[in-house]
Amino acid sequence: MDYKEAKDAAIDIAKDAGKLLMAYTQKTLAYNEKSSTIDIVTEADQAAEVLIVERLKALFPEHHIQGEEGGHQGAASEGADYTWHVDPIDGTTNYAHGIPYFCTSIALATSACEPVVGVIYAPIADELYVAVKGEGATRNSEPIHVSDRTHLGQCVVVSGFPYDRQTNPDNNIAEWTAFAPKVRGLRRMGSAAMDLAYVASGRTDGYWERGLKTYDALAGVLLVQEAGGIVSDYAGQPKPQDRAEGRYLASNGHIHQQMVDILMSARQK
Ligand code: IPD
Ligand code: CA
Ligand code: CA
Ligand code: CA
């Protein structure tokens, strides 16, 4: 498989999705609730997913497509050698409220769910993050690297809260509370893919979140790995995408074990 062709296609498509998302910001958006009132999908999520999926299907008919909004009918079935994991808007709550922190995230992964191409485009900042397995990571074509901070007290770490937090006691409050006194900055910014891209580019130093799906995470996972960082589950085990609970921990590597220790002890209390 030629990853360059896949990378170039994903870049073009993510940028066109970004234009579509910017056009929709001029309108009053129609939206629907999904699992609850805090979990919404807008007409722009759906239109962007259709755009992305139709283009991918035409270019790579032999690939499976996994998109958040389910608009992937007609693509090759599960079990194909490669799958595209597509999040048309990561950060829908921000997008719908006019908060300029959201992106389109597109990853190509093997049948073993190993990402090989990751593209994240944030249209408001006009930032394009790209990673190819074994070839490094870039932002707007410049190489990016994780930070070199080693002391948590000098670090900014980021997390997110799952949509089932109103009913599921595994709601991230214990973990959040455990980190708060230990770090320079603690942030909930609202887009898992962007949060991972920020770790990859050294703007932040670490990130954790439960309940991520492959379309939220895989492009950002590859970015962090190709930028020299580490991705694991909360216990430090690799490939969190293999486990249904979707607990992701990403960091610059230097603070990884410290983050594992905090997460493990918070979860035992
Ligand atoms: C969500 C965002 C958010 C994270 C949620 C995700 P969506 O994705 O990434 O930051 O906390 O877990 O589901 O719904 O905006 O695509
Ligand atoms: Ca998402
Ligand atoms: Ca989404
Ligand atoms: Ca969503």
From TrEMBL:
Mg(2+) 2 binds at D90. Keywords: Hydrolase, Magnesium, Metal-binding. It comes from the Bacteria. Mg(2+) 1 binds at E68, D87, I89, D216. It is an enzyme of class 3 (hydrolase). Transmembrane segments: none annotated. It catalyses: a myo-inositol phosphate + H2O = myo-inositol + phosphate. The keyword Hydrolase applies. Its EC number is 3.1.3.25. Its cofactor is Mg(2+). One of its GO terms (biological process) is signal transduction. It holds the Pfam family Inositol_P. InterPro entries: IMPase, Inositol_monoP_metal-BS, Inositol_monophosphatase-like, Inositol_monophosphatase_SuhB. GO terms for molecular function: inositol monophosphate 1-phosphatase activity; metal ion binding. PANTHER family: INOSITOL MONOPHOSPHATASE (PTHR20854), INOSITOL-1-MONOPHOSPHATASE-RELATED (PTHR20854:SF4). Belongs to the inositol monophosphatase superfamily. This is Inositol-1-monophosphatase. It comes from Phototrophicus methaneseepsis.
